[in-house]
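Box 3.1 — From sequence to structure: Antibiotic biosynthesis monooxygenase
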Amino acid sequence: MKHYAMSTRTISDAINTGGLLVVAQWEAKEGQADRIAEILDRFLPEAQKDPGAKLFLIGRGKDNPAQFLFYELFQDEAALKAHQDSAYFKTYIAEQALPLLAKRERAQYALI
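Predicted structure (token representation):
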């Protein structure tokens, strides 16, 4: 899996203006982790171009490569909704990746 981070902004630039932080944890079904990583390789460049997305970090577990961790910072709730309503999200995440998951947890946070 490639290095996952934002495209051109620094982390300091992204967090200085606040936003909505979404943290998600995924666990792949048996034998599906590499397939999910391939999907995320295609998904991430699209997500990074999203105008409401300030930061995307996706990691894969070192001890358990079936686990994935997402840190996503959006400008606001409307930006998150636009992201979830986008064609790339529906294709890569809703249609392709989610059926391959054994577990998915998400939480939202406001930056302080």
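Summary of the box: Helices lie at 11-15, 33-49, 77-85, 87-97.
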